[in-house]
Design goal:
Layout: E1 2-5, H1 16-30, E2 35-38, H2 48-55, E3 59-66, E4 72-82, E5 85-91, H3 93-96, H4 114-125, E6 130-134, H5 145-150, E7 154-156, E8 162-163, E9 175-177, E10 186-190, H6 203-207, H7 218-236, H8 250-262, E11 265-267, H9 269-277, H10 279-284, E12 288-296, H11 305-316, E13 320-327, H12 332-335, E14 341-344, H13 345-348, H14 354-359, H15 361-371, H16 373-382
Parallel strand pairs: 1-2, 1-12, 5-6, 6-10, 10-11, 12-13, 13-14
Antiparallel strand pairs: 3-4, 4-5, 7-8, 7-9
Helix pairs in contact: 1-15
Amino acid sequence: MRILVAADKFKGSMTASQACAAIARGLESVFPEAKVVQLPVADGGEGTARAVCQALDGEWVEAAVHDPMGRAVTAGYALVHEDGIETAVMEMSEASGLWRLAENERDPMCASTFGTGEMILDAQSRGVQRILIGIGGSATNDGGSGMAEALGYRFFDEKRVPLRGMPVGLEKIASIESPDVPDFGETMVACDVKNPLLGDNGATRIYGPQKGVKPKDLEFLEARLRQLAIVVGAWRGKDEDFSEVPGAGAAGGLGFGLLSFCGAELAPGFDLVADALGLRAEIETADLVITGEGKIDAQTLEGKAPAGVARLAAEAGIPVAAFGGMVEDADRGRLRPRFTLLASIRDGFADLDVAECVARGEELLFETVKKSAEDLKKILRADGVV
């Protein structure tokens, strides 16, 4: 009997690897004869690079970059060698994330994705053929102009005066010049939002306020991105205007920047991670799949890793159980069709407060799996495995 454990992180309590290990220990105590395979997963958001790094035995490297305010910091990402291809797996938030700033430092007027560009350059200097980058959690609203500047693109105003220090002065942009070597290889972008660059559903109006954009500055920042889109459209040609592409507005318009300056492709985060991990093939050889994350609720069904795992398991005809820190009772009706079993730490340890459950996550997850032994055996019996 082969059981695949493909869980995501339990945010604030366990990494994906720790969660998988706790579940595996619980399974091994119940099914000592089983082969339990651990494959930590992610959905392109926080923790993706480390999950892929561990699952594929990659190398964690660090690069000297700049944070959104231009301060020197160190950002890490994964190098993975598979099928003769060297891939860098990174998250833009490592360099340009909102977590890098104190609340009183948030300033999308000048916050830059320059450090993200520096990460990309660092990966290229190591000879990678492909980059997979997650673009959630940004502190920026620069349309990827800071990243482009780091990559060697040059911006000018209408008098051909160079504009430096993007996005400051971005509203004056009139022309663009490419770097001497503009080929940045294959770039895949993990992006689960559908926002365009501009408009009521665009980068500035939807995500700006959480990054510190003041109401009085919304129109200025919108106009600045509009000017960037106009100039990029003229530079690339009318058939390559990416401002309306779903996801162009992700990460303050970094989606647009990656499309425009790196020739990137945008795809759902879980699908990119699943392909990188070879998850489908692992599921197809399993008798039972176990997944999970910290909170399982309606949001889980909106592109989160457990729902993706469940989808692939259903396609392969393999039963799937999900363990969480908690399962939202109000959403169980929507969740049950996706998962053969739903169980949570809170179900079995309701007498403990949330803080203690979080602090004792690995221990309690192990115990929750053990407590679910009979339910798991019923699933396997119904499938003819035991």
